[in-house]
Amino acid sequence: MLSRGHPLFQRCDDGHEVDTIDYDLYPSTYQLPWLKLPVLALAPDQVQVVVSHFPCLDGYAAALVAYMYNPHIEIILTDHAKMHTHHDALRGKNVLFLDISPTRDQLALWTKERLMANFVVIDHHASSRIELMALSERHKYLDMNFSGCVLAFVYFFGTDWELPLLLRYIQARDLFRKDKEGLCDIVMGGLLATCGYCAGCWSKHLNDVHSLVEIGTFLEKQRQKAINAYVSTAQPRIWNVNGVLYRTWIVNCTDKSCISDTGNRLVSRDGCDKDIAFMFRYEVLERQWHISLRSLSGVGPDVSVIAQDTFGGGGGHANAAGLVYHGISIESIFE
After folding, report:
1. Sign of dihedral through CA atoms 318, 321, 327, 330?
2. Residue-wise pLDDT tens digits, 104-153
3. Are 277 and 262 in contact (CB under 8 A)?
4. CA 234 to CA 237: how far, in whole Å?
5. Rounded CA separation 137/195 (Å)
6. DSSP class of 162
7. Which domains does the chain have, with CATH numbers?
8. Is 214 in a helix, a strand, or coil?
């Protein structure tokens, strides 16, 4: 039983039935022999606190998996910029980081203070490999081939249980392994429109996504129109990154659901391996810019490295990264 104050329900609409998590797990009909986690510093039943990436479908799903395993686990949903604000909540606890990683500086400080009793990081972002390079293998499992929620499911439940269908769609969307019919986008659109970030509602669709398709199909048509509009308004700039010049397409993309596909569309138009898509939006209450970078898969520059080297923070994948910028204007980046 969850109260409405629980983090997994903090963004529920009043009309949602959010009192309980309703789900079934089924014995696995196939095995994942290539995905077997090593013995880590924390066993699943030792985890007291889960810190998971949010707002992110993959990170939220990973937190839901943790709750499914143990409803008494404390859930903290956060992003990299707010990680430091949860310092006191981690004190003396066994902490599992899912789909998000502390920076090397944060870990060095927390280790010096002996903040956490123990901890493990399970993540799939390329930037985490850099940040956690010196960290013992017992305290991390990094695998770029799977999404955070799938890694979380295998950590908590192993491979004896069938991976819920919804988690498969989330992984495909998160790793850009989309199907030709666009069903991943349709299901995710229907999920957010129907459930928002409501764990009770999500749990009802773990193995049943059919009801999400109808509303998702309509919303996907509207989203594609918005993506086309963003692509048409993108402006070219030359970005000097440590002496390397990149043709960069910049666009003010205020709709978060359009960011990835707008960026992918921009860098794939000409197939140029020096192109970067640069989507930005300004958050007035936070007084900061949110920037997303994309490059062409397989041949484009590693934008996670560019994010860290140029802005001193952020990260993600080789062809998809995000960061927060506190400068006065976006144009000053290209001057």
Report:
1. positive
2. 889 999 988 999 999 999 999 888 888 898 899 999 999 988 999 999 99
3. yes
4. 10
5. 37
6. P
7. 24-163 (3.40.50), 164-233 (no CATH), 234-334 (3.10.310.40)
8. helix
